Amino acid sequence: MVDRSDIELQDLRRLQGELTARVFRIERALNLPPEIVSPPRADASLESSPALPSVAPPPPVRPTPPPAPARAAAGRPSARDLESRIGSHWLNRIGISAVLIGVSYFLKFAFDNDWIGPAGRVAIGLLAGIAVVIWSERFRSRGYRIFSYSLKAVGIGILYLSLYAAFQVYSLVLSGAAFVMMLTVTAATAIMAWTQDAEILAAFALVGGFTTPLLLSTGQNREAALFSYVAILNLGALALVILKPWRRLLVLSYVGTLALYIGWYSNFYDRSQLRLTVGFATLFFAIFAVVPLLARQGDDKARLSESIPFCLALANAAGYFLQIYAMFEEVDDKATAWFALALATVYIFLSRQTRARASSPEAARTVDLLHLALAIGFITIAIPIRLDAHWITMGWFVEAAVLLWVADRVDSELLNVFAVGALALGVGRLLLIDNFYVTSPIFNTRMATYAVAIAVLGAVAWFGSRRKDETARAAAAVSVIALNLLALRGLSLEVAGYYAQEMATATSSGGRWNPPDSLNWRHVQLARDFTYSALWMAYGAMLMVVGFWRRSAFVRWQALALIAFTIGKVFLYDVSELDRGYRIVSFIVLGALLLAISFVYQRDWLRLSGRGNAEEGSAGV
Prior knowledge:
Elements: H1 4-29, H2 44-47, H3 76-112, H4 118-141, H5 145-169, H6 175-196, H7 199-215, H8 223-243, H9 248-268, H10 274-289, H11 291-294, H12 308-332, H13 335-357, H14 361-386, H15 390-410, H16 413-432, H17 445-466, H18 470-506, H19 515-549, H20 553-577, H21 580-603, H22 613-620
Helix pairs in contact: 3-5, 4-5, 5-6, 5-7, 6-7, 7-8, 7-9, 8-9, 8-10, 9-12, 10-12, 12-13, 13-14, 14-15, 14-16, 15-16, 15-17, 16-17, 17-18, 18-19, 19-20, 19-21, 20-21
């Protein structure tokens, strides 16, 4: 009896042989290389063992054709782009300019020969401008947008010039009528920009709008009308920027506003117009101050214009403050300090509004930092305006202390940077500018200013030591060194001031040479030099005590450096300059101090050598 499993195995072997033969025929038909194609064995169905049937090899993969070679002429696209730009842009503008020049020459020839009267000339200009604008729509509908916008620029320019001629040259219309017509042209251009989504047309509208007051100027002072019109233009530009990502319009609007304001101010401003002018300047400032909050975010193609609102905010803040300062300088220059503080308050408020209105965390942080920087900048400016002499220095130190405290509360690195900046301003002014006149030692304005500086530097060191990052620890170390240097300088100045008064008292001959006065002056000088050495040795000893108490090698190294400097002074200067008594005291005090410090190190109270308690006890015996 034949086993059923043997029959099934034979069927599988037969099917495998048929499939192998079919694959061989397919490979031969594809003309594959001989080493890949191998003919099937005739006895394939007989050689395989029952336990492990043979498996047909996988069909070979047909090699893919090599990729097409890359275009060798890599520079051809750029050449074609340049050619296309020359043909479509530059030749377009040159052609339009040539046509305008030719038409202008023809019209001038016609006007010179009285072929056309004034009214006809203006009418021709208006009709030609309208016709060019309408004609440009035909090209826009066919896809030639750039050519269409160029024609619109020509037509709008013809309309403005025609209205200018009607008012200024031929006096055919009144100023009010000319203003309304120019305003109509501006509004129509803005509407076209909106409906056609064309930023360039909006720019044409703004240029025409800001040019209108210049074209219609009569040389009279009309501040309220002029600046009311400028405010309307700025509000319109702001509305466009809110609804469209056309941030470059802000630059045109601000430059136009600033140009008209400066032109009016240089020709017509006087102190009687202070309130109205301040009111309009504040209105313009407010419009541009809210731009970073309200300006619409652009797409990827407009990334270059992302920084425009922030740069404009800086220019707006600086320009407004300079305007206020220029107007109040003759009235009350101290009052501008209150304006600076008011601006600081405004920018702190805007900073808080940014966090609620910003579209993204990154944008919110950027605008927030911008407003904080402006607020701190105006506070820093207000201090030297409102205060005098050393009070300016103390004001900057107090500002630095407040910023440090706020930065620690809100965890802001920017405020830390500004605190360091205010501190640097205070220290720089204290060392380079402030000139104190004091009559009593220690308890005077100079020592009070140095004490405030030392306290703020101590706060910087304390806040920095609480943090774990290397930058904060480096700032703390620098602050400790600066603190000690300022303390030494302040105390040395007190010694110098005290003995300067003593020298003045010792010299009683009114500048004439007198042997007794010379001896007294020499005695005071020796006492001063000895006091310097004593002061520096005492300060070094104090630093050493603090270093042992706080277990701070950094402080101890500063003490050692100061003591080394004092040793050099005693051995190189005091030996030759001081008399016998001061010399003896200097060496005895210095030697006692050095022995005491050496004893502390030998006892190894800080275990600097790493020895145990038993070794420490034997060393002290």
